[in-house]
Each structure stands twice: as structure tokens, then as C-alpha cells.
Task: structure prediction
Amino acid sequence: TGWSDEERTRAAAALDVLWTAPSYQRLVTGWKFEADEAADVIDWMISLVAEAIRAGHAPPPTHGGPSPDSL
Result:
């Protein structure tokens, strides 16, 4: 893709956040989605990020905030 290491890391982090159980649980408990509905929404969001990656749309640049390792 010609992306920097930072851009690749950010894209991977976006997919990781969507793929984890807390994202699914938030939809089920916070938004009261049924299990299948929550899974469909997660799948839809992952598809959007994957499509953006394939299209070459890199994540936004860092604005000097903390990194996950510093938290």
C-alpha cells in the first residue's frame, strides 16, 4: 500500500478493536442488540475498514496523544 509503519499499525489496531469481545458486548449490553444483530454490525464495521484499507485510505495521522503502550 505504500503506507508507513504507523499507518499499518493504526489500521491493524482499528481491526483489532472491532474484532474483540468488548465491542460485541457493548452492542449487546449497551445497545440491547440481539446476538445475531451485534455480530452483523461488527461484521459490517470490519468490512468498512477492510474496504478502506483495500482502497488505500490510510488512518488519520497521530496528533501526539498517548499510545496504548503508555497507558
About this structure: The chain has three helices and no strands. The helical segments are 5-19, 21-30, 35-54. The longest helix spans residues 35-54. The radius of gyration is 14 Å.
